[in-house]
Design goal:
By secondary structure, the protein is of the alpha+beta class. Helix content is 41%, strand content 22%. It has helices at residues 15-23, 27-35, 60-68, 71-80, 92-95, 105-111; strands spanning 2-9, 39-45, 50-57, 97-99. It has a four-stranded antiparallel beta sheet, with no helix packed on it.
C-alpha cells in the first residue's frame, strides 16, 4: 500500500475555523473517503498555516477519481477552498502537492533482513 504525503497552506486568519471544521467532519464525507480507499488519513497543521496530510492507498489515481465522483466531495471542496492560499482556482484536492517519500524505516530494516520491521 502506498503512503501519500501532501502539503497545502491554510490562510493564517482562518486557522481556528479550519481546525473547528475538522473536529467533526461530515459523516458522509468520512464514509466516502473510506469507500474511495483512503486509509490512515491524518492532517497536521502548523501555526503558520502549513498543512501536511498523510494517507495510505492502493492506488492514488483511483482513490482521487473515486472521490471526484461523489457529490459530498464536491460540496466539501467548495466549502474548504476559501481556507487555502495558492490554489489558483483549483479545489484543495486538486491543488495539494504530493511529496516524494525518500526514507522509510521499516523498508530499510526489511532490506537488512531485520525480522521485527
Amino acid at each position: 500500500m502506498r503512503r501519500v504525503c501532501f502539503i497545502l497552506r491554510v490562510r493564517p486568519d482562518r486557522l481556528a475555523e479550519y481546525r473547528a471544521r475538522h473536529a467533526a467532519v461530515w459523516p458522509e464525507m468520512l464514509a466516502a473517503l473510506r469507500e474511495a480507499g483512503w486509509h490512515d488519513y491524518s492532517l497536521f497543521l502548523h501555526d503558520d498555516g502549513l498543512l501536511v496530510g498523510y494517507f495510505r492507498t492502493n492506488d492514488l489515481a483511483a482513490s482521487l477519481a473515486a472521490m471526484e465522483r461523489t457529490e459530498v466531495n464536491a460540496r466539501w471542496q467548495a466549502e474548504m477552498a476559501p481556507f487555502f492560499v495558492g490554489l489558483d482556482g483549483r479545489r484543495p484536492d486538486e491543488g495539494f502537492i504530493v511529496l516524494d517519500e525518500i526514507f522509510n524505516l521499516d523498508a530499510q530494516l526489511a532490506a537488512l533482513g531485520d525480522t521485527e520491521a
